[in-house]
Write a structure and sequence with these properties.
139 residues; 0% strand; mainly alpha
Length: 139
């Protein structure tokens, strides 16, 4: 598959769905408080402090678009016509193998521990799988 043949709409929709999934995962009622506690952040810590909101969310969304594009290129490079099951499997495989595994060493060497890693990469693996499903469904 060439870059020119990528379904741009599928890539953008997958990134948007991933953005929403991350929002739910790290929302105040889900993992954020546990993640912040594992990082030993003060209760009044504001995530992304030092960056303006548009820059913070803009860069986050841009990174998800790039991740979605890579998943699409790999998926259609491996499968001619992937099903949503293939999309899920490829997304999860890339999420675990490419996103989660390198991050483990980073968290451990930074002294942040296994819990921080689980909270962070749980979202990464989840959204990679979701992206794979969306991209396969929209082709």
């Amino acid at each position: 598959m060439s870059l020119a043949s990528v379904n741009v709409l599928a890539v953008i929709v997958a990134a948007l769905v991933a953005f929403i999934a991350n929002f739910i995962w790290f929302g105040p009622l889900k993992m954020y408080t546990r993640w912040a506690a594992a990082l030993r952040q003060p209760a009044d810590h504001v995530p992304g402090s030092g960056l303006s909101t548009p820059v913070l969310f803009g860069l986050t969304f841009a990174s998800l678009v790039i991740e979605s594009l890579v998943i699409a290129l790999v998926m259609f490079g491996v499968c001619d016509d992937p099903s949503v099951v293939n999309g899920l499997g490829i997304g999860l495989l890339l999420g675990v193998g490419i996103a989660a595994m390198p991050s483990l060493g980073h968290r451990l060497f930074a002294g942040q521990g296994f819990k921080v890693w689980i909270y962070e990469v749980g979202a990464d693996v989840l959204v990679a799988g979701v992206m794979g499903v969306v991209i396969a469904a929209l082709g």
